[in-house]
């Protein structure tokens, strides 16, 4: 029971009374829980979600509820690939970042070798090495705010957004998923 006599989001969606030991109550609030549980019910079914949560230790249920909700939302956005398309997009971003890093390291090594007796490295940085930064995005790399890493759109199969519309290399998949679910 979510408190003050109001049912949890799952029981509200299922139109049933929320009992004291409801398995869904701690994980699906009265306000947003119904919308998140609707996706879970449509993709996995209430009975399957209940069985899954009840077979897990209490310490792991919160993570499982978050994961199930994220996977259900991803499956509704992309019925064929679901959250796997987000994983592929993140892997593609890692490969692109590694290539850009090695390119910048090579450019820095070349610039430092050419100007070892003259100006410091920062002064010798050319426009090509600066082109990956956008002054309008507070020095965030351009590839983060462009391409397929923007907000999720209907039918999109390669995008995932954090709470501010960008995925950065400092965020892990769980925090991105949590922020994305909060945004919905």
Question: Please, could you describe this protein's structure?
Answer:
By secondary structure, the protein is mostly helical. The chain folds into two domains: about 10-75, no CATH class; about 85-184, no CATH class. The protein contains nine helices and two strands. The protein has helices at about 10-15, 35-45, 45-55, 60-75, 85-115, 120-125, 125-130, 140-145, 175-184; strands spanning about 135, 140. Strands 1-2 form a two-stranded antiparallel sheet. The two termini are about 25 Å apart. One of its GO terms (biological process) is hormone-mediated signaling pathway. Belongs to the LOB domain-containing protein family. This is LOB domain-containing protein.
Which terms would index this structure?
single chain, 184 residues, mainly alpha, 2 domains, two-stranded antiparallel sheet, 9 helices, 2 strands, 53% helix, 2% strand, LOB, LOB domain-containing protein
Give unreliable regions as ranges.
120-170
Placed side by side, the strands forming the largest sheet appear as 1-2
How does the helix and strand content classify structurally? Answer: mainly alpha
Overall pLDDT score: 71
Instruction: Tally the structural domains.
Output: 2
Distance between the termini: 23 Å
Percent helix: 40-55%
> Cα-atom Rg, whole angstroms?
23 Å
What order do the helices and strands follow?
A: HHHHHHHEEHH
Shape: elongated
Strand content: under 5%
Tell me about the largest β-sheet: 2 strands, antiparallel
Number of helices: 9
How many DSSP E strands? Answer: 2
